[in-house]
Design brief:
alpha/beta; two-stranded antiparallel sheet; 17% strand
């Protein structure tokens, strides 16, 4: 099969197995060049793309960790490619096993009690306990395991409409967008999907089963961003969910401290993800951010940040530097006053005519395509490839 990108809105419906493998290899190479001392028995919940995948790669190839991962991906069929996360996981497992590391992946709904129990049993068989739990789930929907209610998240402001600049990433046209405010029910649903309840459930289940080391660490990921995105992000429905996630971190930290454990939120830098592509305003902001941070030599992708998180912030062995809300600020370079001032100046002036001078839309598009294995150097996209790529992990199931 010759596989080409098929883009519908902010979603690419195809993925390239060789390109995804190259994307993973590039991150592995970076982690190997930046070794650090870190935990050896790791659970990554949401392990197949973005920050979750980069966390697993950084810990495996930077710190020599053995990992169990949980994700929800689909294999190839006779008419469709597998999801990018499926191909990423296949490539990761292959490289991890070649390096002599344990890498087991469970495929299923991480929100369910069933998958939690399967994961606990796998931990008990393989490690006994885990020293680190990375919570990096990104899903638009969640079915509550106790009530059966299904929630769907929305990306909306709260209280009043919000108008700002946005960009059509396919045409490069800059325009104005107005978003209507969320209802109370939409806010509740978004918190249920993206807040901290499921993270708390995972940690409670792991502790109750004795699968969590007494001095274990857990970390989940968040984002704050600049004031111009606050109405749609930090002060919108997603922000309410992130507030709940951060409150959960404080509660978990208090619960875990008695045995020497810790819980943190890491506030990461803006990067191109399928989720961020769906948020109006954000793609234009990221396009400008890329230009400014690259000009200052400060640009980072997921793997660079995860190596910095686990190698410098959490791997120091001493106190972890946090802000007043107990958050690790990996977005410190993005939020530098001089960087933000430059971005705001370009934001005020940017339009369809000067976009190429003030932003880096080509870089944004390329990063988006690379999420699905396209646009990778050294890959022949005209070649016939087999879309059927198995996982090596015995725990992998075809969902």
């Amino acid at each position: 099969m010759v596989i080409q990108p098929k883009i519908r809105g902010f979603i690419c419906t195809t993925a390239h197995p060789v390109g995804c493998a190259q994307h993973v290899q590039n991150q592995v190479d970076y982690a190997r060049r930046h070794p650090f001392v870190g935990p050896k028995r790791v659970l990554v919940i949401g392990c197949s793309t973005g920050y979750g995948l980069a966390s697993r790669i950084a810990l495996t190839f930077g710190a020599g960790a053995d990992t169990i991962g949980v994700c929800f991906e689909k294999p190839a069929s006779d008419t469709r490619t597998a999801t990018a996360g499926w191909y990423n996981t296949a490539a990761f497992e292959r490289l991890a096993h070649k390096a002599g590391r344990t890498a087991i992946t469970l495929n299923g709904d991480a929100f369910s009690d069933e998958v939690k129990q399967q994961t606990i049993e796998q931990i008990q068989r393989t490690f006994g306990q885990v020293d680190l739990v990375v919570y990096s789930l990104a899903s638009p929907r969640r079915t509550h395991p106790r009530t059966g209610e299904t929630f769907s998240s929305v990306i909306k402001p709260i209280g009043a409409p919000f108008s700002s600049k946005t960009i059509d990433v396919h045409t490069g046209r800059v325009s104005e967008v107005t978003l209507q405010p969320a209802t109370d029910e939409e806010v509740r649903n978004t918190i249920a999907v993206m807040g901290g309840e499921d993270w708390q459930m995972w940690m409670d289940a792991l502790r109750s089963a004795g699968a969590l080391a007494p001095d274990a660490t857990t970390v989940a990921y968040s984002y704050i961003g600049p004031e111009l995105t606050f109405p749609i992000y930090r002060e919108g429905t997603i922000g309410r969910a992130k507030d709940d996630l951060e409150a959960t971190a404080l509660r978990l930290h208090e619960e875990m401290q008695a045995s020497g454990g810790r819980a943190f939120i890491s506030v990461n830098k803006a990067v191109v993800t399928q989720s961020s592509s769906a948020i109006p305003v954000v793609p234009l902001y990221i396009s400008i951010l890329f230009r400014v941070m690259k000009a200052h030599g400060l640009h980072e992708g997921c793997i660079e940040q995860m190596v910095r998180l686990f190698g410098e912030r959490l791997g120091t062995g001493g106190d972890v530097a946090t802000d007043e809300k107990h958050r690790i600020r990996l977005d410190d370079r993005e939020m530098r006053p001089d960087i933000q001032a430059e971005i705001m100046g370009k934001w005020a002036a940017v339009d369809s005519e000067n976009l190429g001078e003030l932003a880096n839309l080509d870089e944004y598009r390329n990063d988006f395509l690379q999420l699905f294995g396209f646009g990778m150097d050294g890959v022949d996209y005209d070649a016939d490839v087999d879309p059927q790529v198995p996982w090596l992990s015995a725990a992998a199931s075809e969902a």
